[in-house]
Design a protein that fits this description.
With 229 residues, the chain is mainly alpha-helical. The protein has a two-stranded parallel ribbon with strand order 1-2. α1 crosses α4 and α6 crosses α7. The longest helix is centred in the middle third of the chain and has 24 residues.
Length: 229
Amino acid sequence: MPARKAFYSELAYVVGIVTLALGTVFMERADFGVSMVVAPAYLLYLKLSGIFPWFTFGMAEYSLQAVLLIAMCIVLRRFRIGYLFSFVTAVFYGVILDLLMLIGSMLPKDILALRFVYYAVGVFLCSVGVAFLFRTYIAPEVYELLVKELSAKYGWNIHKVKTVYDCASCLVGIILSFAFFGLWHFEGVKWGTILCALINGFLIGRIGTVLDRMFDFRDRWKLRERFFR
């Protein structure tokens, strides 16, 4: 068996954020429904951008995650300084997402076959991004942080917790769609969102297994103990 190549966990953080944002853009262009994780933020973006044109998808992301971070601390009854880095990550992700959304807006979306390709690529990239984020000590987005913290506190399987969280987020997205755009009017949350919610945890687990076989994730700098414990 060939030796695994070293892959720095700090680089895994950057790769995870960019890949996750790119996957979100592809799913948005496919218009079959965005990822269930970002569905609530996407619904807020669609609603508020109609009132405030300057309000972006990225802004919706880190605004919602700030609220979720506070709720997580209340539920877990603890707070760590490292949790604040999750909000920094959320802002970083939001900026990258807005930049890639501008670039992605040039992709054609009037060909049905292309939209299916966008969807498949988007789901895969989102799963890859989360798998990388699970292998870095740097605080991930609040979405992934919540999954990691719940799994660690109660000893639950992280991939099963991820699937449950995804389904709950999908349900919240459906409720917001009805509240913002009318009963039985599905906006942002469609069949693609449901499918993604069901398979995302499985994909992340399989991709993570492949990554662990290929790479030896290790720290480049001694920041783990200082800032993320």
